[in-house]
C-alpha cells in the first residue's frame, strides 16, 4: 500500500508539526479569507476556493514559516536570513514580534522599497554583490561570527510546517476538497501544504504549479532525483529557484501527485482575471494556481478545488508594465 | 436644537427604510469585509475601518440600492435604467435575481466589456447617441411604451435606503465611530449612509468626498441650494455628475457635516496605496475617501473613522494607464 509506505517513511515534517505551527500562529498570523467566484467557477467548470495569502502579514504566506521557526528558538536568539523577496520581510517582521534581532543579507541592487520595508521592521540589512559574492557563504559567516541562527526560506521542518498552516485553514473553511493547487518554488509551501492536506483528507490530490521556465521540481519528479536547471527567467520572481530543496523534495516526491507548468503570459492573464473579476492584487508567483486552472492544465471539472494565492507583493508600476505588454 | 429640527423635517428616507432594506438584502447582497491596516493607521494617525464594497456583487455598492428598489416592486414588473456605469449592471443583476426583465439604455460608444457584462445578466441593451440624443427622454419613452418602471441611480428613496446598508454593516462591525467618510456623486450613497449613521450613532460626523473638478455638492451646500456645474472632467467616472439630486440633497444638507474635494492625482495615489499596501483593487471613484485621508483633508487624528470603498470596477489596462502617468 502506497499509504503505508508513506507513513513508514520518516519524512522531515508531519501533520503534528503543522498542527503545532497552527497553535503557535494562532492570533499572530492573519487567518486570511477564502474567496469564491461564480465567474471563475463557470469559466473552469468546478467549485474553486481561493486562499488569499496576499492578505497575510507582510503580504505573503512566508510569514507563517518564518514566525513558526523564530518563535520556536530560545528567546532572544538573533536570526539571519538571505533573500531579496518576501522571506526577508517575513523574517524581519517575525523577529520584531518575538523581540529578536534580525540581519538580512540582500543584493546591493535590491529595490529600495524592499530594503526600506525590511529596515522598517527593525532589521539590519547587509548588502552583497550578487555577481561576485556568494550569499550563502556570507549568511553562514555572519551567523557564525555573530552567533545568529539562520532561518532558511524552505529547507527547514519548522518553516515547512508553518507554511502548511495556510492549507490547513483552507481545508477547515472550505470543507472536503478533491484537489489542492499550490505554487512551487523551493518547495516549502507545497511540502507543508501536502502534509496538511494528505494528513487531514487522505484522498485529496495535491497539484503543484511551476513557471514553465523554472520547472525544476517537475523534472526532478520525472527523474526520481533532484535536478538542477539554469536560474530561470520568469516574471514569477518568487519561484526563481534552480532546484528543489533536499528536505522539501523528500516530502514532495511522496505526497505530491502532479506538477504542471504555466507560461508568463498565462500568469499575467490570471493576474488580470484576479484584478478585474475578483478585485484582488496577486503577485506573479501567487497567481500560478489560477493561471493553471484558466489555462485548462488541471482537471477541475465538477470538482471542489482549493488554490493558494500565495502573495500580493507587486508594485503598481510593475503590474502596469506586465499588463501593458503585448503578450499580456 | 438642530437634532430636533432634523427629526421634524420629513426627509425622503429614514433609518427604518435602511433597516428594512437590510432585511431585504440579507442573504442576497454580500456582507462585504471590513479591512484595517496598521500602515494606514500610522500614516494618518487614526484608527481606520475600510468597508470593501469592491467585493459587492457587480463590483460596487450599487447592487444594494438597485436590488432594494426592484425587489420592492410588484413581482414581474419590468425595469429600465440608463447608465454607462456600475448602476446599469446592478439593475441588470438585481432584475435577473428577482426574475424581472430589464432594459438598459447605454451610449453607443460604451465599452464593449460593460455592454457584454450587462447582457450577461440577461438584460436588453438599447443604445443612444450621447451627442445627439437625450438619455432621460429615451428612458422615459421606453418606460411608457413598454410599461417599465425606471430605476433611477439615486433619486429614489428605495435606492438611497439600499445604499445606506453598507454603512449600517460597517457601523455594526467596527463599533462606535467618530466619523464616516463617503464618496459623493449624485448623492444616493451619502444620503443613505448619513441616514444610517446619524440614525444609529447620533454624534458621528459624516464627511462626503468629491473630485475637485466635480464639487457640485460642496458648492450646493455652501449656496444653500442645488448648484449646477459643467460636467466635470475627472478620472472618478462614477462621480461625474453636474448637480446633486433633489431628494438626495434634501438629506445631504441636513445630515452631512462637511464635504472635501480631492484631485485626480490624490485619487491615483490612494489607488496605488490600496493596491500595494492592502492588495485591494479599488476604482477611482471608490478611492476618494482614502485619498482625502492620505492628503490630510480630514482630521482623523486619534479618531475611529469608517471609510466606504465604494467599488472596484476598473480595467487592468486603465489602472496601468493611471499609475504610469507622470502625475501618478
What would you say this structure looks like, in words?
The structure is a homodimer of 328-residue chains. The relative contact order of chain A is 0.16. By secondary structure, chain A is an alpha/beta fold. Chain A is built from 14 helices and 10 strands. The mean pLDDT of chain A is 93. In chain A, the strands form 2 sheets. Chain A has a 6-stranded mixed sheet, sandwiched between helices. Chain A has 2 domains: 2-61 and 156-324, Rossmann fold, CATH 3.40.50.1100; 62-150, Rossmann fold. The first copy, chain A, is 45% helix and 15% strand. At the A-B interface, helix 12 and helix 14 of A face helix 12 and helix 14 of B.
Oligomer: homodimer
Q: What is the arithmetic mean of pLDDT of chain A?
A: 93
Outline the biggest β-sheet of chain A. 6 strands, mixed
Q: Largest interface: which pair?
A: A-B, 23 and 23 residues
What is the H/E string of chain A? HHEHEHEHEHEHEHEHEHHEHHEH
The tally of domains of chain A stands at 2
Ends distance of chain A? 46 Å
Strand order of the largest sheet of chain A: 1-2-10-7-8-9
**Secondary structure category of chain A:** alpha/beta
Roughly how many Å is the radius of gyration of chain A?
A: 19 Å
The proportion of residues forming helix of chain A, as a percent range, comes to 40-55%
Number of strands of chain A: 10
Low-confidence stretches of chain A: none
CATH architectural label of the largest domain in chain A = 3-Layer(aba) Sandwich
Strand fraction of chain A equals 5-15%
